[in-house]
Amino acid sequence: MTETGAFIPAAKPIIGDDERAAVDAVLVSGMLAQGEEVAAFENEFSAQLVDGRHAVAVNSGTSGLHLGLLAAGVGPGDEVVVPSFTFAATANSVALTGATPVFADIDPVTYALDARAVESVLTERTVGIMPVHLYGHPADLAALGELATRRGLRLFEDAAQAHGAQLDGRPVGSFGDFAMFSLYPTKNMTSGEGGMVTTGDEEIARRLRLLRNQGMAKQYENEIVGFNARMTNLHAAIGRVQLTKVGRWTKQRQENAAFFDANLRGVGIPAVAGNATHVYHQYTIRVPEDRDGFATALREEYAIGSGVYYPIPNHRLPSFARTEDLPETERAAREVLSLPVHPSLSPADLDRIVAAVNALAGAGA
User: Fold this and answer.
1) Which segments within 115-207 are labelled E, that is strand?
2) Which among 112, 124, 127, 116 has a CA at the least distance from the CA of 81?
3) CA 26, CA 37: separation in Å to the nearest integer?
4) What is the average pLDDT across 193-208?
């Protein structure tokens, strides 16, 4: 290994004294399950990130997608168009409702669903489109929204990686019938584990609250069959603290990304649409030749972590095993590599990453 210093991880959750104090306060209170902390977190998330839409906290991002689709009425016999180039939870959540996920190809610039590709796979059973704002860059919601309106379809947002991202000055999570934000530890903000579902539809919000809580709005008065998908006060306490910091962290991610943009050579750097605000959950480059060898060399020669999100497109996973022809999805899966961009990086870390990537790209690694 080259003499380079401490290992730089691809991602690094930031948990400090404020988060620990907030959890301790809940422990002292004895009110550990869903309660006032959760309600406060929902209100604060709504006001800060989604222009006042309803926000419903749940125990994971996948639960959020699943319950959001159920609350919107998606079920057996329906089809929802999703990208194959994303984490499997997107398609899984559709399948868990009894509906069928239909895979469409992506825009090679944004890595999100391409509206023309979506239109080509619509059938009489299609009820919705669920783009993913991958890596923190918004999907083309103008084109996808126009298509949904023209064809009488619902629009759902998988905003798991896009806290604070915007399109034309409007926050993601405020466009679709519902949206889901993940609060997993490596996301731009976390609650330890959890998800937040946002919607402008009062009835969807009401059904979400029922579905997460065994179908109850009042104890023992079960209106529908539901789940136990509640967020705890412990998790919400962490989320509330993180919410006060995520804006500053996002700015740091954007500054780190700008440094990479200005200094990286020989690799494809991420593009940003002119009307978009990218929050850089990942800083994802393209390495057309031997991406995996490049990642191995970063780790072993330069002590720099990286991530491949996602090496196997969903339509080729054993759980789905489809035969769709998705050339841009396949190409991205072969070429993408996400570099560390998290706000814990020091100026020296940034310099090391640039030097390593440029050296490897120049050497054809």
Assistant:
1) 126-129, 154-158, 166-167, 170-171, 178-182, 195-199
2) 127
3) 8
4) 98
Q: If you write DSSP's letter for every residue of 180-206 in order, what string do you get?
A: EEE--TTSSS--SS-EEEEES-HHHHH
Q: Does residue 47 sit in helix, strand or coil? A: helix
Percent of the chain clearing pLDDT 70 (strictly above): 98
**Residue type for position 124:** E
* Angle made by CA atoms 280, 135, 305, in degrees to the nearest 5: 75
Residue 299 and residue 305 in contact, taking contact as beta carbons nearer than 8 Å:
yes
* Cα–Cα distance list, 133 to 61, 98, 160 (Å): 14, 24, 8
Alpha-carbon distance of 154 to 14, in angstroms, equals 36
Rounded to whole angstroms, the Cα distance separating 234 from 271 reads 38
Q: Where are the domains of the chain?
A: 17-243, 246-363
Residue 342 to residue 350: CA distance in whole angstroms: 10
Mean pLDDT, residues 256-274 = 97
pTM confidence score:
0.96
The model's confidence at residue 363, banded by pLDDT at 50, 70 and 90, is confident
The per-residue pLDDT for 275 is: 95
Q: Please name the residue that has the structure tokens 């669903």.
A: 113
Per-residue pLDDT tens over the stretch 132-189: 999 999 999 999 999 999 999 999 999 999 999 999 999 999 999 999 999 999 999 9
pLDDT at position 364 over 70: no
Q: Taken in order 145, 146, 149, 150, is the CA torsion positive or negative?
A: negative
CB 159 within 8 A of CB 281: no
**Cross-strand bridge partners of residue 30:** none
CATH H superfamily, domain 246-363: Aspartate Aminotransferase, domain 1 (3.90.1150.10)
Are 253 and 342 a contacting pair, CB within 8 Å? Answer: yes
Fill in the amino acid letter for 77: G
Residue 337 in contact with residue 285, Cβ under 8 Å?
yes
CATH of domain 17-243: 3.40.640.10
Ordered strands of the 166-167 beta sheet: 170-171, 166-167, 276-277
Q: Tens digit of pLDDT for each residue in 81-127?
A: 999 999 999 999 999 999 999 999 999 999 999 999 999 999 999 99
